[in-house]
TrEMBL record:
Keywords (A to Z) from UniProt: Guanine-nucleotide releasing factor, Repeat
InterPro entries hit by this protein: Ran_GTPase-activating, RCC1-like_dom, RCC1/BLIP-II, Reg_chr_condens
A Pfam match: RCC1
Species whose genome carries this gene: Hymenobacter nitidus
Keyword flag Membrane: no
Name of the protein this chain belongs to: RCC1-like domain-containing protein
Alphabetized PROSITE patterns for the sequence: RCC1_2, RCC1_3
Record bears the keyword Thylakoid: no
Boundaries of every RCC1-like domain copy: 176-467
Length: 814
């Protein structure tokens, strides 16, 4: 039974192409369930039950959390049946995996597949899975079926099962769906056709019981059918005028006609002509109207109607007051949907993880909860913490918090992103060593964290654990340095406060200021950046200005003399972006050229040497859009969207998969070309891709990555509501996984775990820095060995996976 999501391909940043559902395993009266989704980057993820390899991850272990399927492939659509899955790749080819006892995979065999196998060479437009049979439409509009054929549900005039796709007639079709023991489709002329079993009148021909059809038969004479959705034994269909019609099984009120009577002919549901999307499964139905409102009816035992109750509904009831729903999928006992902002929501039964959250195991959720990755717009890295803003304007922080630098009202470290307050108006932010400054959309300025030198600007040196507004003025730019803060007001004037021992405030003195102090009354300041003990700014005319400490030539004026007030650097009027680091500076001109100067002991200037530079030096010939300098390493984005790093790399902070120092820019972040925002901390880094996903790499000793492992390559970071959550380290204090520091001469890695009893449901996985599993093996004892002799030299993750937890530790293969 395919539950399609009819979403325009450009409708959402994070596109959920298909979410699939819970199915009853009648033999044991328990539930088998798995789900799948396709992300905006074309990757396919699956989770839930996996006894027949239906997840396609190469194992038969259940997954409470999503795992990637078909690494390296890009997918267009996916459909989940009972214990098997079909998907179409972006090149139009059809792939299948899972249970194949009835030939439902279509590969000519009855062999179970635990990884995707290609079905022929044809190109396909759509595919739908049933219990044991499948239906697909090729690009030429022809209809093909395969698998179990009892009751004639393949439509080829026989009851002979087929292990490979067979064409049904010569008509052209616009959509087709596989039900439990029947099939339904709409031809391109708008006529609707059904065939197969008819136990509850699902064929819509006025009869029910044993009057099965072995070939497609038309339902009525109407030629205005727009789309159809097959439930287990009921059908929901939309006409072109927006009216909704239903027939078949109605034992739980899933038809929505106010009764629980089966219908053998189509009946209109209500008087509305505004229905746009429909999804039905075994006992309940979901629908979206053209105004974006969500409606539900039928069985509600597990809260699958999302109305906050467990009451059966025989008429459509509106779910909440929102009018932003984009698509929905009804499972047997759980449901999922997407909103127009790209967020994914789920509700109902979660017995085997079909909702996609380890924290909701066995919970019946009666209201929608968000399960999609957040969409981020900015990230900033401090010494050992990170702060980020989501696209919806919410503020999040994670990592070290000993000085209140996270702003959550505590000094407790956070191992995963935690929302700070409830405001959705955060616009920009900047993070110093232990404090932060941020602007809201109304131009107000807020600070929090350590305040030993007055860097918060509240006229005190008192540390603040939550963001607090500073004055009533409005601002347009602000930057946090190590112990000082600089900002530009909306009138274009320049202000500073905090530590000033090296003249980094630029007010002509070395006096600490605990309140905002006017640095320059000139009203043409465009942007300002605060480094450790020096500062830089760009005016509207494109000139670059510098001041503060200059011991290592970080001001770039050819000297090592400190400047207590802003002075222009050179005569160029084409500066576009500048970043002051610990003792060095990098900048980009309007033509995309990259320049650097100052300390270069770790190669952070990127000129191929470790030679200090007292004046701006051109770095290579590539064209750049952003560059960010950390303590001893630098990250940059080229105009083609690629990510690069250079300088110190002792903790993998360059993101190139190694720990090797780099004296010149090297590619980081694999081959992605969609990076749009990057930040360099002390020993860790963060960045955001064009699809709004948040990534981190480098040192994680203070949980500053938001994931429980250090990494030499960018790893995806999800908020707790994400579909790929990693269990917070704080919840795993009694559980551990470690490896011996060396690999044996025979090429074995020895591991030790504690805190739980190994069982058949526990696996060990070896994952390379590209996220690919290169080893998957059952864990049978708390201590053992993993063969790694044949692995290439480099860093790897050893991951222990249970239904409740994922523990990871890293090791290096020489």
């Amino acid at each position: 039974m395919k539950l399609p999501l009819r979403i325009p391909p450009t409708a959402m940043r994070s596109l959920l192409v298909s979410l699939l559902f819970l199915l009853p395993l009648l033999v044991t009266a328990q539930f088998q369930t798995h789900s799948a989704s396709i992300h905006a980057d074309g990757t396919l993820w699956a989770w839930g039950s996996n006894s027949k390899g239906e997840l396609g991850d190469g194992t038969t272990f259940h997954r409470m959390l999503p795992v990637p399927v078909g690494l390296g492939m890009r997918w267009r659509s996916v459909s989940v049946g009972e214990e098997y899955t079909l998907a179409i790749s972006q090149d139009g080819t059809l792939w299948a995996w899972g249970n194949n006892a009835q030939g439902q995979l279509g590969d000519g065999t009855q062999t179970m597949r635990i990884t995707p196998v290609q079905i022929g060479t044809a190109t396909w437009k759509s595919v739908s899975t049933g219990t044991y049979h499948s239906i697909g439409i090729r690009q030429d509009g022809t209809l093909w079926t395969w698998g179990n054929n009892s009751y004639g549900l393949l439509g080829d005039g026989t009851t002979t099962s087929r292990r490979s796709p067979v064409q049904i007639g010569t008509a052209t079709w616009q959509s087709a769906e596989a039900g439990e023991l029947y099939s339904v489709g709409v031809q391109t002329d708008g006529t609707l056709w059904t065939w197969g079993g008819n136990s509850t009148g699902q064929l819509g021909n006025g009869t029910q019981g044993t009057t099965n059809r072995l070939t497609p038969g038309q339902v009525g004479l109407a030629t205005t059918w727009r789309s159809v959705n097959a439930g287990t034994y009921s059908i929901m269909a939309l006409r072109q005028d927006g009216s909704l019609w239903a027939w078949g099984n109605n034992a739980s009120g899933q038809l929505g006609d106010g009764t629980r009577m089966h219908r053998s002919l189509p009946v209109q549901i209500g008087a509305a002509f505004s229905w746009s999307v429909i999804s039905a499964c075994s006992n309940h139905t979901l629908a979206i109207r053209s105004d974006g409102t969500l409606w539900a009816w039928g069985d509600n035992t597990f809260g699958q109607l999302a109305d906050g109750t467990r009451l059966m509904r025989t008429l459509p009831v509106q779910v909440g007051a929102l009018s932003t729903w984009q698509s929905i999928v009804a499972g047997a006992y759980h449901s999922m949907g997407t909103r127009r902002d790209g967020s994914i929501w789920a509700w109902g039964y979660n017995g085997t993880g079909q909702v996609g959250s380890a924290t909701l195991s066995m919970i019946s959720q009666t209201a929608p909860i968000q399960t999609s990755p957040a969409v981020w717009q900015q990230v900033a890295a401090g010494i050992a913490h990170s702060v980020a803003i989501q696209q919806n304007g919410s503020l999040w922080a994670y990592g070290a918090n000993n000085l209140g630098q996270l702003g959550d009202g505590t000094t407790t470290a956070r191992s995963f992103p935690l929302q700070i307050g409830s405001s959705l108006s955060w616009a920009t932010l900047s993070v110093g060593d232990h404090h932060a400054v941020a602007l809201r959309s109304d131009g107000t300025l807020w600070t929090w964290g350590y305040n030993g030198t007055g860097q918060l600007g509240d006229a005190t040196t008192t540390t603040r654990l939550i963001p607090q507004q500073r004055g009533t003025a409005t601002w347009r730019n602000a930057s946090a340095g190590t112990d000082h803060t600089l900002a530009i007001r909306s009138d274009g004037t320049l202000w500073g406060w905090g530590g000033n021992g090296s003249g980094q405030l630029g007010d002509g003195t070395t006096i600490t200021r605990t309140s905002p102090t006017l640095i320059s009354a000139t009203t043409d300041w465009l942007s300002v950046r605060a480094g450790k003990t020096h500062s830089v700014a760009i005016r509207r005319d494109g000139t670059l200005w510098i001041w503060g400490s200059n011991i290592f030539g970080q001001l770039g004026d050819g000297t090592t003399t400190a400047r207590l007030q802003p002075v222009q650097l050179g005569t160029a009027t084409t500066w576009q972006h500048v970043s002051p680091g610990y003792r060095s500076t990098t900048a980009v001109q309007q033509d995309g050229s990259l320049w650097a100067w100052g300390n270069n002991a770790n190669g952070q200037l990127g000129d191929g040497t470790s030679t200090q530079r007292l004046m701006p030096t051109r770095i290579g010939s590539a064209l750049w859009q952003q560059v960010e300098t950390g303590e001893t390493h630098t990250l940059g984005l080229q105009r083609d969207g690629t990510l690069w790093g250079w300088g110190s790399n002792s903790n993998g902070q360059l993101g190139d998969g190694t720990l090797a120092q780099r004296l010149a820019p090297v590619p980081a972040g694999s081959s992605a070309t969609t990076w749009q925002n990057v930040s360099a901390g002390l020993y860790h880094s963060g960045a955001i891709q064009g699809n709004g996903t948040l990534w981190g790499w480098g040192d994680d000793s203070d949980t500053q990555l938001g994931i429980p492992t250090s990494s030499a390559e960018p790893l995806l970071i999800y908020s707790p509501a994400g579909p790929l959550p990693v269990q917070p380290a704080a919840q795993l204090t009694q559980i551990s996984l470690s490896v011996y520091p060396t690999i044996t001469a025979q090429g074995y890695l020895t591991y030790v775990s504690s805190g739980f009893a190994p069982s058949s449901g526990v696996t060990l996985e070896v994952i390379n820095w590209h996220g690919q599993r290169v080893r998957v093996l059952p864990m049978t004892s708390a201590q053992g060995q993993v063969a790694v002799a044949d692995l290439a030299s480099g860093w790897y993750l050893l991951r222990l996976v249970t239904d409740q937890h994922r523990l990871m530790t890293k090791f290096y293969k020489p």
